Amino acid sequence: MPPEDEIVVAYLAPELPALSATFVYEELLALERRGIRVIPVSVRAPAAVASGQEELARRTHVLYGGRPWAALGAGTIEALRSGRRGLRALRWLLHDLRAVGPLRPASWKLVYQWLAGARLGSLLRRSGCTHLHVHFAHVPAQIGMYASAFAEVPFTVTAHANDIFERGILLREKAARARKVLTISRHNVAFLRSRGVPEEHLAVVRCGVSLAARRDLPRFDRRGHYRVGSLGRLVDKKGMDDLVRAAARLGGGAWTLELSIAGDGPERASLERLARDLGVQDRVRFEGALPHGSVARWLRSLDVFVLACKPDARGDMDGIPVVLMEAMSQRVPVISTRLSGIPELVVSGETGLLAPPGDPPALAEEISRMLEEPELRARLTEAALDHVVHEFGLAANVDRLLEQLAPVRATPAPARA
């Protein structure tokens, strides 16, 4: 067992260390640099391990690996071994099956997640964990809360976006069982309150940006050619199609524009086709996925960074994309959309510019305004850098997280007279 004051945290995420979830493993590594012993756990192995994180991948425990029937058997054995500890987990499961509806497919998945929780609970006990922290409030939180009961350790959850907007089941139950539900924005706090989660169970902890802040000043002069960029998974909610349409409306007068799109995903072929259809294929470059170590250099090659987020057909949308914080940390002017928690980071007219989601003409106007006003770019980037460092910096948010992970000590009984 660890010493009484030692914090040993198990860290559970959907895919660790995934290329698409830099903010999760950067937070984990920051905790380790603070002297916290961390046990990394992933629901499943990542499709692509983040560059440079092979050592973290090797020591990460994977719950959904191998044959499902073997996992079911191992989970059943651990549940039976748990004795009285498993009774609380079983009561939670029975309650949750009734709440979700026993005939729904999600209920059968809960049973599988409960058994995965039994296996994780055994790992927590063997590792001497004092706390379980979970990223994402859907499947990982369902496994994590059952594991918490099996192991009799407290847990916290960080809620992001899709996990509560589109896949948020049992939110009140998770909040009641957790020490705290942390979330990345005040927008999410309001959303969770509207779903019945009491405010006292909620706290804001941002996904902190880990890139070192740029110290030198970029050029903010007028030129004949500008380079605008965007980075993200090429899916509908990133609004890359709106950005291509906006770019097609710009340039050709006093200045020309090149658009650099970094990232990959299922929409790439359709975006390339759109660029050809709009006649701008010679001005739009598709860079493919960038390793995290190359992001800062690519950002510094840009005059403006744009992320045209919007809800997709299912209602899924971004929370506060970390790449916006990264651009601001590199003194790159940013433009995004009035969506979810983004205006808490990109304060329109103060730390960046905002357009309505799904409105390419309005987006084009904001890009044109940013490029044609060098004084505006200089003013916004200085305020943006200060805002990112103090509100969205990794160090500041690890401090906030540590407040939730510290062991809760019982208040001593008053001495008797």
Automatic annotation (TrEMBL):
GO molecular function, one term: glycosyltransferase activity
Keyword Glycoprotein: no
Key words, A-Z: Transferase
Residue span, Glycosyl transferase family domain: 227-384
UniProt KW Transferase keyword: yes
Top-level taxon in the UniProt lineage: Bacteria
Transmembrane stretches, start-end: none
Record domain Glycosyltransferase subfamily 4-like N-terminal: where: 23-211
InterPro entries noted in UniProt: Glyco_trans_1, Glyco_trans_4-like_N
Designated name of the protein: Glycosyl transferase group 1
